[in-house]
Amino acid sequence: QVGVTAQKTMRLLPASGRKATQKVAVGNQEGVVTCFGIKKGEAVTVFKTLPGQKIARLDLGGALNTPQEKIFVAAGSEVRGFTKRGKQFLAFETNLTENIKAMHISGADLFLCASYIYNHYCDCKDQHYYLSGDKINDVLCLPVDKVNRITPVLACQDRVLRVLQGSDLLYEVEVPGPPTVLALSDGNGGDSGEEVVYGTSDGNLGLVQVTGSKPVPKWEIANEKKRGGILCIDSFDIRGDGVKELLVGRDDGTLEIYSFESADSPVLHYDHALPESIASIQGGCVGKEGYDEVLACTYSGWLTGLTTEPVHREGGSGEELKLSQEMQSKISSLRNELEHLQMKVLQERERHQLSSQCSAAVSSVPAFSVNEKFTLNKDDASYSLILEVQTSIDNVLVQSDVPIDLLDVDKNSAVVSFSSCDSEPDSNFLLATYRCQANTTRLELKVQSIEGQYGTLQAYVTPRLQPKTCQVRQYQIKPLSLHQRTHSIDHDRPMNTLTLKGQFSFAEIHSWVVFCLPEVPEKTPAGESITFYFQNTFLGTQLESTYRKGEGCFRSDNISTISILKDVLSKEATKRKINLNISYDVSDQSVRHTLRLIHPKLEYQQLLAKKVHLIDALRELQVHEGNVNFLLPQYRSILEEADQLLEEYKRQPAHLERLYGMITDLFIDKFKFKGTNVKTKVPLLLEMLDGCDQDGLIAFFEAA
Asked: Could you tell me which residue ranges the BBS7 helical hairpin domain spans (predicted)?
């Protein structure tokens, strides 16, 4: 274990001989670069640097077409270089205003990215600069020796890969989710040198050919197993068949190996679950010469090797005896190390007790780092909150000042208990405590929000540390929290329009849009105006927002979306004492269209609820009669599918209430824009929702 590590901070140095094992270079968040090799199953350190600023990236470099064995690390705004023996030969201060987030090295070319800024240096001299429209998560450059030009590719949070030429944008490649990591196919860009593999934060994997004029998508693998987001990718021939496999590390601890058997797209060949997110992954020969392995480095700095060496050796009893002796010596050395550590812990504890009792005692709070991810899942319109701590979590208290539902997560083994909340305004809507089992370092929660209700979700994380300490993390639940950025929308749908005019700047209206909607970059976009497209993950309705200084136009096929925007934007403008001129154009056709989108979901959920209510009675009949052949086929099928039905109902307990709420809001909003208050008719609407068909529902909306 080397201490907490960031994404892409572990690399294998090239082997010095044909059969030699490879050394491992890894950088942690204390700024220490450790280089070590494995001898007889033990880690032997080659060199270790002094602590400094936290290391954001570690890459290998060297002259083109020579072994890449120089180690480069990015920490803060500085890039440092070390030889394979640990001698520092470079300290390059970039003077960037923000910390470096991503780095790629190719010969004398250095590519660096801070949050929104890309810089290209050659021999430490500034060459090119680009300002991205959204946060940059990763950067790489196509191999210059193959494509004969410098082509940097940026992975940006707004679901695009930006391909550059010098300081200019050549073109954009749309990808299915926010890309978090880039890698060259086969480690060298494939035959053409133009093939780039990308992984997204929602777990999709794809390959695109970045040609000189346009992108050519080759294959894409959707995250059907609902696994974590992808943090690292490597190519290595682990099966020894001459074709490199794709090694993938995810943020839920899943390690995957994809093989290219015959099909154009890779097939999952092997997977393995680690207890923490995998920050870096590499293929090589580390532990024993002649046996390749996959090396993974997790968030808290554990390095784990999966080897191709057979565990059960064939051979006589002498071989087994030798193995057991090897094992016994390893076990005894581990026992000694454990005893030594326990003694050290006792001594430190006594020292702490004594120092805390003396008159000049100073209270010290142990620092610990928390890795967090709060994202909207497209499939079930819920938010995933993932909390990862470098040490075991004792408990997590979740508090919210807006109505949200906590959903069950299969991987979650923590015990949850709810506390009652006051009914007064401005008080809590949710107080829940998750008590974790021993050695839990990662906790995943799922919450479902309601559009129009906005506020803050807070998580109080307490690890098993002495003295007891806690960190608070805050997450904004936005007014249109179930909307997700998309590349395009269907312009043929009936749309409602909201137009704002007033004495506001571009930056001001942008800050209001950031407040209302997720996935909008906080930085004000370049240029005079901007258009963003969104899709509602729950209903599939859409929103187009176009705004500039003094004017904003919002179009949606859902009148409730327009109503929420109108209320929130007026409130924000009033806070800043800005006078707004608001006009709207409402389409009755759009209400019918939204009801047609909601109704199939409503019917499905009503049927599911009815089936679930029948399960107990049917099971009782089954016990009494012993045989259910006399039942109608539809009831028999309910019994056969009982477990799946209960599982689905448990996963989304309040789904039906949410749909009822959306239909009620749609009804109120439709008439609100006409200046009529129909709240007295809501009980009538709810009554008829129980067994109403689509046409009947539309007729009620039009007759009211």
From this structure: 588-701
| R_g of the chain, CA atoms, integer Å | 29
CB atoms within 10 A of CB 606: 16
Distance of CA 641 to the CA centre of its chain: 33
Q: Using CA atoms, how far apart are residues 201 and 176, in angstroms rounded to an integer?
A: 10
CB of 309 closer than 8 Å to CB of 288: yes
| Listed residues 429, 452, 477: the one ending a domain | 477
Secondary structure, 3-state, 27-77: ECCCCCEEEEEEECCEEEEEEECCCCCCEEEEEEECCCCCCCCEEEEEECC
User: 304 in a domain, yes or no?
Assistant: no
Query: What CATH number does the domain containing 172 carry?
Result: 2.130.10.10
Cα–Cα distance for residue pair 665/451, rounded to 1 Å: 10
**Residue 272 located in a structural domain:** no
The predicted pLDDT at position 467 comes to 78
Give the contacts of 36 (CB within 8 A, at least 6 positions apart).
23, 24, 43, 44, 45, 46
Cis peptide before 467 (omega within 30 of 0): yes
Please indicate, yes or no, whether residues 81 and 201 belong to a single structural domain of this protein. Answer: yes
Reported as a single tens digit per residue, the pLDDT across 656-704 is 888 888 989 988 888 888 888 888 888 888 888 777 777 888 888 887 6
Residue-wise pLDDT for 221-236, tens only, equals 998 888 999 999 999 9
The percentage of the chain sitting over the pLDDT mark of 90, rounded to a whole number, equals: 50
**Per-residue pLDDT band at 614 (split at 50, 70, 90):** confident
Residue among 100, 176, 169 nearest 131 (CA): 169
The string of pLDDT tens digits covering residues 49-94 is 999 999 999 999 998 888 899 999 999 999 999 999 999 999 999 8
The residues pairing with 474 across neighbouring beta strands, listed in sequence order, are: 458
Residues in the chain: 704
Determine the structural domain holding residue 90 and report its residue range. 5-226
Q: Is the pTM of this model over 0.85?
A: yes
CATH number of the domain that residue 413 is part of:
2.60.40
From 177, 210, 226, give the residue that closes a domain.
226
Q: Do both 41 and 182 map to the same domain?
A: yes
- pLDDT at res. 315: 47
Is the same domain home to 506 and 376?
Answer: no
